[in-house]
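fyi for ur records
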Amino acid sequence: MIGAKVSLLLVINHLPYDGDVVWNALRLARTALDDGLDMRLFLMNDGVDLARTESRPPEAEFDLQQMLQDLMEDGVAVRLCQTCLKRCGIGGGQLLPKARIAGMEDLLDWIKRSDRVLTF
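which gave:
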């Protein structure tokens, strides 16, 4: 497949502001997107908190929600695990506008259609 665009799926499971894991995942997503890769992000477990509006702690060094929103504005598809959202008690009105709710079937489809899958 010469000339085909490489697709990368990042699955974020980690709580956004607990260390640098999510920050590094978003930095990698930006770098991959800027390098021409087809980028997708699937947020599950504590990672769904990343798509919440107004969840940035005041002492946070980086605005991870803004980083995510910038990626979505630049065409990165973001899906949120529906079961994880319910478990965390997050309602649809509290989510960043371009993030979409999805299920395991959607994640499996993305995995099948990705050249590389990384988890954070």
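The chain has a mean pLDDT of 91. thats all i got for now
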